[in-house]
Specification:
The complex is a heterodimer.
Chain A lengths: L4 H17 L4 H12 L4 E4 L6 H11 L4 E5 L6 H5 E6 L4 E6 L6 E5 L6 H13 L1 E4 L2 E4 L5 E6 L12 H4 L4 E3 L6 H9 L16 H13 L4 H16 L9 H17 L7 H12 L13 H8 L6
Parallel strand pairs in A: 1-8, 1-9, 2-5, 5-8
Antiparallel strand pairs in A: 3-4, 6-7
Helix pairs in contact in A: 1-3, 2-10, 8-10, 9-10, 10-11
Chain B lengths: L1 H9 L3 H18 L4 H18 L8 H19 L5 H16 L5 H18 L6 H23 L10 H24 L11 H4 L9 E2 L13 E8 L9 E7 L1 E2 L4 E2 L15 E3 L3 E8 L9 E2 L2 E3 L5 E2 L5 E2 L8 E8 L2 E3 L18 H13 L3 H14 L3 E2 L10 H9 L1 E2 L1 H14 L4 E8 L2 E3 L4 E5 L3 E9 L3 E5 L24 H7 L3 H25 L3 H10 L7 H26 L6 H14 L11 H11 L4 H16 L5 H13 L7
Helix pairs in contact in B: 2-3, 2-6, 2-7, 3-5, 4-5, 5-6, 6-7, 7-8, 10-13, 12-13, 18-21, 19-20, 20-21
Classes of the chains: A alpha/beta, B alpha+beta.
Chain lengths: 309, 667
Amino acid sequence: MDRLPQPADRLALVLDQAGRIILGKPRALRLSLAALLARGHLLIEDLPGVGKTTLAQTLARVLGLDFNRIQFTSDLLPADILGVSVFEQATSRFTFHPGPIFAQVVLADEINRATPKAQSALLEAMEERQVSLEGETRPLPEPFFVIATQNPRHQIGTFPLPESQLDRFLMRITLGYPDAAAERALLAGNDRRRRLPELEPVLDADELRELQRTVDAVHASDALLDYVQALVRATRESPDIAVGLSPRAGLALLQAARAWALLDGRDHVLPDDVQAVLPAVVAHRLRPAGESRLGSEGLVDRLLETPVP
Amino acid sequence: MNARLARWLARVPPAHRLLLIGLAMLALPHLLRLPAWLALAIPALLLWRLAHDAGRVRLPSRFVLLGLVAAAVAGLFVHYRTLIGRDAGSALLLFLIAAKLLEMHRRRDVYVVLFLADFLIVVGFLFEQSLPYTLWMGATLLILLAAQIHFARHPAGGDDGPLGPDLRLATRLLLQSLPLAVVLFLFFPRPGGPLWGMPEDALGARTGLSATLSPGRISHLSDDDAVAFRVRFRGPPPPPGRLYWRGLVHVHFDGRSWYAPHHPVPALQPAELDLQELSDPVHYTVTLEPHDRRWLFVLDAPLSVPLDTVITVDRQVASPRPVSELKRYSAISVLRYRLDTRHRPGPVYLAVPDGAAPRTRALASRLRAAQADDRALVNAALDYLRSEPFFYSRQPPLLPDDPIDGFLFDSRIGFCEHYASAFAVLLRLAGIPARVVSGYQGGEPNPLDDYLIVRQSDAHAWVEAWLAGEGWVRIDPTAAIPAERILETPERLRPRRAEAGDRVQTAPGWLQRGLRRIGFVWDMLDERWNQWILGFDRHRQIDLLQRLGIDPFDWRATAGLLGALAVLALAGLLLYLRWRDRETHDPAIRIWRRLCRRLARHGLVPAPGETPRAFGRRCARKMQGSARDLERIVALYLRLRYAPDASGRDLEEMQRRVRGLKLDEKA
């Protein structure tokens, strides 16, 4: 039995629904869903206006999750993200007003426009899945999925995320311009966002949590673990790479591959799944060595040549 | 200033730095041999290139370069009178390499420089083959190879990237080439002559014994510490005082000089040897440094000599050709003996030209009148040396007139040649047959290894006299001089009585002791190098082949050996590959590999990093006719390798399907 009809079919339905809004981006959509299933967070690096926000809203809608958007600006404060306690005259007590981070899907737009202080407030919450304020720890909702967007680095007035922070995103993807057919459909059709409410949620939060647990159960054989290890080792031994992948990155790669296998309807991971998620999981964690002339894409291509055991 | 220099050098691309270092290392040993102007010009050219790479100066135009080369070629021709041959050729090559640096613009030029440099490394061995030189050239080759790898890896400009990986790869390549080098060294057919020899120019002046002995013409004895030969004894070495290494036997005396008989002399057959052994024979092996003469050195007196040598009536051992490369031979000697007792030697051993040495003649008559017995006369003559004020000096005055009378009655200062020569003349004039023998005396044991080092400074001359009933007897008149009449430092006195082993302990100061020890270690390494590398000549190669049971003169057997070696190497490689793949006890992988081998025959090979599934799909597209079967096999393989619930039945099915698979491109 290598097919799990039910979860795979449900997920296919999710992708199908979301694909009606997000035109011509099936791979980006699939990767985003895989990141969500693997309990990771997603970084989208692209120009404004290619549909980052729509993607986040669509996913939240189709999966039946609540959604908040935080626009990052240079004067954004941690409290604007996490929330504040306000003294209320009526009750003579401090009442906590949760910030926009208390949602199941959070879109952190243009994260590199904010100061490192605000950035790290978000990133800590992402990592801990809870918010500690004024001595009180408040858990974030479950599932909790952050989609951060970032303008390409060369734009003026940005604070690029340091590598240690980039490591906290399971995947980094780019959307890119739509192809001609998708763009034409976009132009011809209504505003996609207005069609959002028409979408019927396919799943709910409980079902999604169940699916996340199913991902954990996807089998990774010894041969596959060998392959993941070989990949990680290759990054550490390559003269073209400044710093190899961390153990956390290796785990992330495996978990993303599991989610990909589940999306493919399998109960076990194949090297093909690892290769499918490898660029999204690994590229933002690798920095070319000083002497190397390969970009991070070149590094990933080189990495994909690692023999499959 | 240093910081500025460092900044300046940092601008030189690393690969060029490496190349220039390699070339400087290559040129260094050659510079000493070159005419002075060229020895200055070559570093200048290298520096020119360095300065250019640092962005300081421009390279010369084509015309300037042409002029430089023309001038150098003319200079070389004037100096060597030729442009070919070892010396002129290598000098020209070295200059051309340095000049090529100044028009090195493209990768092709770099390779020209590198290949010429590689060739020059080989040429260098025509001059020298010592161990330090070989190590130096090995390091040079490594650097040049690393530079070459760097240029090959970075075709665009070749100016960036770290050098570490290139050096590592170069080291690995050199190490990997060693086994092949060993096989070629052992089995490649060797010419009969010297491996590196070029006899025309190689016969330069080398220190060693001369065929002519002219006491009074040489005003000082050399203190050359160069090794003459090394000896390994089978069994314990005899005491140093008994080690008289016979070389040349001088029979003819013309009043001034002694001459060894000219070659060819009638060789002695073994049956003609009239030798009584009075002690046990001593077995030993000599490794003789090349001295460009035919004679060999053996312990007095030789009992058995190497096969390819001749022994003359004077017991002089000669090789058929001048010893122009390291020669190793074994011999057997007896240290106490009776030689040629049966026949009194001919008149040639009594000949002294008329009119030569009149005062010595008178002394001989006086001694003869006092002593009728030959043995008594010899002792009386030795007593004369002892009682009269004779001195030993390595820098005696010249004797322009009669060297015998001048030494015996006027100067009375001399070294072994003076004593031996005068003593032999004295005996001859008293009617006792006598000859002068030159060779070496003693030797210094290397305390770290059981062999003896005999140096040029151990050269010695002594007398052999024929006494009735005793035959030829060795007499060392120099040894009759008491120690207090030695005019130079006693440390340098011959014969060296002290054992070198004692000297190691008694030498003052730890530093001197340490240096001495290092000296012995070095000599040991040198000895091994000579024995095993340079001494591996045609004879030893034939010897080795014969010991391996192969007739080296039978090409079929040799070809058989090489074939067997190739098969062995191949088998070793296969074993290694199996060992490397030993983890593949997973039967699914074995079946999969079998399938891959079959697919490879159709040109289907997995790309680097291609997954089995992707490869299987690609194969199915190509092999339309077998697409279904292939897909099923791949699915089974993936299940066996990656799924949690694979069973033995899956394996059987995969095996069956692979076995029954018919690969067909057409649907």
